[in-house]
Design brief:
Layout: H1 3-23, E1 31-36, H2 46-53, H3 56-59, E2 62-67, H4 75-80, E3 86-89, H5 92-98, E4 103-108, E5 115-120, E6 135-137, H6 143-151, E7 160-162, H7 169-172, E8 178-182, H8 186-192, E9 197-200, E10 213-217, H9 218-223, H10 225-244, H11 246-256, H12 263-277, H13 289-301, H14 326-379, E11 383-387, E12 393-396, H15 398-404, H16 408-411, H17 417-420, H18 426-438, E13 442-450, E14 456-466, E15 475-482, H19 484-505, E16 511-515, E17 521-524, H20 526-532, H21 536-539, H22 551-564, E18 566-575, E19 581-593, E20 596-605, H23 607-642, H24 652-669, E21 673-680, H25 683-690, H26 692-709, E22 715-720, E23 723-729, H27 733-748, E24 752-754, E25 757-759, E26 763-770, H28 777-793, E27 799-801
Parallel strand pairs: 1-2, 1-3, 6-7, 6-8, 26-27
Antiparallel strand pairs: 3-10, 4-10, 5-8, 5-9, 11-12, 11-15, 13-14, 14-15, 16-17, 16-20, 18-19, 19-20, 21-23, 21-26, 22-23, 24-25
Helix pairs in contact: 1-14, 2-10, 2-11, 10-11, 11-12, 25-26
């Protein structure tokens, strides 16, 4: 055997032995970690379920336990206490960090927060200020909503905060006036029920915060950097899978996590989440330090955290490896080789097939993702151009070819300055390009550009920086829209406006003219501009739906106009530029201008009339409430008139009315009727010995005793003094006697506590029954009284039945 072959054989034996020694400790044991969700299982957390289902966590060496949240769950507290290693929070993580709680944000899944305040449309809440004095369900952890309320100058101490039920049903039922919720979730139930609602978003007050954000404790990130990075990557991989196949993610939730939401609800949530995550525009999990600083500035401005706080401490940074001393490299190399060999041999057959499947799947996903992005880029309704710092074109889509006239192959690698920017504007545009690479990550501009045939057009540009994860030079993706026609239309509209100005500017009511085909405002008179709180020149060219609260009302107006050409006296809800709604009485007519159908709309603000109507309704409601109070008071007075004040039983007056009625009914319907007359034995002696207050307590307890043992049809009464009478409809003599015996025995065993005294007493009872002992109320009572007398004479603490009445 050649010497080399012998050495290789020996090496194989040594590696095999080493594998056997390492197998027990390096057999691929998974690290167990816990992910604490911020709420119950739903599509909001679909990425983590898919990372579990697709095996991404296990491939990262992790066994992940996903724990759903409850109303009283605080993910930050769970993670910092070590009960969970990872959690889901939002922008309040920055507040918690500034308050000394060492959390680290790993990835912002939601680029925009879905958190809003929901209220009934058409109700008393029309703007944030109307929340004061109203019932509001709002969680203490929803920091961005508190920031929004502060910016809207809503006083927190004037809010009637009630415990959160996490159900839109309470809003629909009128139990609360407003509720915090997600646009992606609670609105499903509202829309399904046809419930008209308003949503107050912090974004309307320029508070655009991150939504759901994955985080961990700083100590955990320092102690387990590889695990943190593996968990983060696997989670984002799961999110990519959930967004690529929302139907599969929804069915995974229903099968393994929760059936609280229907499949339709989950897919609704998925659809509403996508524009908030922006997977086609922003890398999943991306966090901008500049944006976190703006969030911190907003909190600081509103007095919720210190100014100039170092927000960078919140953001996750992968740990940098520490250099090893020279002497350790040899040892480390040998150990690594041995470990790699052992792991390779042990896992080769078990994981090779899975790795190949995963590789194929990853390649398919990557190809699909690239194809998806390429389709988006190529079919975008805007010109899309990618260029580098030297303004050289790297990509050029079909719409860019249409707008500027240059084909893609003509522009790639060439400077767009030479082909698109007029000479006199190049210095200005160069300044814009320079500022993009060193300034904010997204910038907007309005520039004049040139087409291939030399025409000058006006374009709106948005420019976003693209970072190369591999460390290459950054580039810019620019989106452009040709707004030349819009400007031409604006000029034409200004000419048209002159024809109407004299008449319409002097009209004693607001007037707005819009194009039907695109709802563009072509004219607005001064009265309407004042009503909408917007300068006339700014209102022209805007979309009319901006001034409507209820899009359904506007749609009905347009449909009726198209059918009838005219609409008169339609009550609608409009809103001004600040978002303040108001009621208007509106009339409209179709006009033609150069064959262009226009809607001529006039209206009057009827807020005062509506307020008067609402005041009248409120007054009617108040009157109805007062009438109800009066009825309740009358019922209580009637109750008091028929009840004995000491015992709570019916009084003698009620007994006299009731017994006559019950005797007549027993005679009419032919059923028995019994009466039982009870008397406390030696009651005078008890009064003389312990006082009248003790006697009253004994009477009160006997009243409670009898009330508790009376059937629903029985009539227990205080007959007078220490005597009590019970009317027992439908009860024959034997049953009445048995019940009276139970009362006697039960009361004899009852102890009445009065101060330090423990008092006891017995009862004597006389029982009579219709018709055998009397056919009138008086006859029955007399028969029962005679039986009671015999019970007293016979030694007390006994029950006697009346004798038969002589005919």
């Amino acid at each position: 055997m050649p010497p080399g072959a012998a050495h290789r054989r020996l090496l194989r034996h040594l590696l095999a032995a080493l594998c056997l020694l390492l197998a027990a400790g390096a057999a691929g044991a998974l690290e167990t970690v816990t992910l604490q969700l911020k709420w119950q299982h739903q599509f909001q957390f679909a990425g983590y379920y898919m990372a579990q289902a697709r095996g991404y966590y296990r491939e990262a060496g992790l066994e992940v336990r996903i724990v759903e949240g409850r109303a009283d769950t605080d993910p930050v507290a769970e993670v910092l206490a070590g009960r969970a290693q990872y959690g889901i929070g939002a922008s309040e993580l920055l507040l918690e960090r500034s308050r000394g709680k060492p959390v680290v944000a790993l990835a912002a899944v939601f680029q925009h927060s879905p958190l809003v305040l929901l209220a009934r449309a058409g109700g008393p809440i029309r703007r944030p200020a109307d929340l004061e004095g109203r019932r509001l369900m709002l969680l203490p952890t929803e920091a961005e909503l508190f920031a929004f309320l502060r910016r809207e100058q809503v006083k927190e101490e004037r809010l009637q905060r009630v415990p959160h039920s996490f159900s839109a049903a309470d809003l629909m039922a009128g139990k609360v006036d407003a509720v915090s919720g997600y646009l992606t979730d609670e609105t499903y139930e509202l829309e399904k029920a046809g419930f008209p609602y308003l949503s107050f978003s912090p974004r309307a007050a320029n508070i655009d915060f991150y939504g759901d954000t994955l985080f961990t404790a700083e100590a955990h990130a320092v102690a387990h950097p590889q695990q943190v990075e593996a968990f983060r990557r696997a989670s984002l991989q799961g999110w990519a899978a959930a967004l690529a196949d929302p139907d599969a993610a929804a069915r995974e939730i229903l099968q393994h996590y929760s059936t609280r939401h229907s499949l339709e609800h989950l897919l609704f949530e998925a659809e509403r989440m996508r524009p908030l995550i922006e997977p086609a525009l922003v890398e999943l999990g991306h966090m901008s330090p500049a944006r976190w600083r703006r969030i911190g500035d907003t909190y600081a401005e509103l007095g919720m955290m210190p100014r100039d706080y170092a927000v960078e401490t919140l953001l996750y940074r992968p740990a940098s490896p520490q250099p090893l001393p020279p002497w350790a490299w040899g040892t480390l190399l040998l150990a690594a080789l041995a470990l790699l060999a052992a792991l390779y041999i042990h896992r080769l057959y078990g994981r090779l097939q899975g790795q190949m499947r995963q590789r194929d799947s990853s390649e398919r996903n990557l190809r699909a993702s690239r194809e998806h992005l390429a389709r988006i880029f190529e079919t975008a309704p805007l010109a899309a151009i990618v260029y580098d710092q030297e303004a050289r074109v790297l990509e050029w889509n079909h719409r860019a070819e249409e707008i500027f006239g240059w084909r893609r192959e003509e522009m790639l690698g060439r400077s767009f300055f030479e082909h698109m920017v007029p000479e006199e504007a190049r210095q200005q545009v160069q300044g814009i390009v320079d500022s993009i690479f060193r300034g904010p990550e997204i910038q907007y501009s309005l520039n004049r550009n040139l087409t291939r045939d030399g025409r000058a057009i006006l374009c709106e540009w948005s420019n976003a920086i693209l970072r190369d994860e591999a460390g290459g030079p950054p580039s810019v993706i620019a989106l452009a829209a040709d707004v030349t026609e819009r400007e031409r239309v604006r000029a034409a509209l200004q000419d048209s406006e002159q024809r109407y100005r004299t008449l319409l500017e002097t009209a004693p009511f607001p007037v707005v003219i819009t194009r039907l085909r695109d709802s563009l405002v072509t004219y607005i008179n001064q009265r309407a501009a004042t009503c909408f709180q917007v300068p006339q020149e700014d209102a022209v060219g805007r979309h009319a739906p901006d001034y409507w609260v209820d899009m359904g009302q506007r749609q009905r107006l347009i449909e009726e106009l198209r059918q009838k050409q005219v609409v008169t006296d339609m009550e609608v809800r409009l809103r001004d530029a600040a978002g303040q709604p108001f009621w208007a009485l509106l009339s409209a007519r179709i006009l033609l201008e150069e064959q262009e159908p226009l809607a001529f709309v006039s209206f009057n603000n009827i807020n005062e009339r509506k307020a008067a109507e609402e005041a009248l309704q409120a007054l009617n409601g108040e009157l109805a409430y007062r009438l109800q109070e009066i009825n309740l008071l009358q019922a209580r007075l009637q109750e008091q008139a028929t009840r004995d004040a000491l015992t709570g039983l019916y009084n003698r007056r009620y007994l006299d009315e009731t017994l006559e009625r019950e005797v007549a009914r027993a005679q009419r319907e032919g059923y028995p009727l019994a009466v039982a007359l009870l008397d406390i034995d030696h009651f005078k002696q008890l009064n003389d010995t312990y006082g009248h207050r003790a006697g009253d307590e004994m009477l009160r307890q006997l009243g409670h005793f009898l009330q508790a043992r009376a059937r629903s049809g029985d009539v227990p009464c205080r007959y007078g003094g220490e005597e009590f009478l019970l009317v027992l409809p439908g009860v024959d003599l034997e049953t009445a006697r048995q019940r009276a015996e139970e009362w006697r025995a039960g009361f004899a065993g009852l102890t009445v506590n009065f101060g330090s005294l423990a008092l006891q007493a017995t009862l004597s009872v006389g029982v009579a029954c219709y018709p055998g002992h009397g056919k009138s109320a008086d006859a029955l009572v007399d028969a029962a009284d005679a039986a009671l007398y015999r019970a007293k004479a016979g030694g007390r603490n006994r029950v006697e039945v009346a004798g038969a009445v002589e005919e």
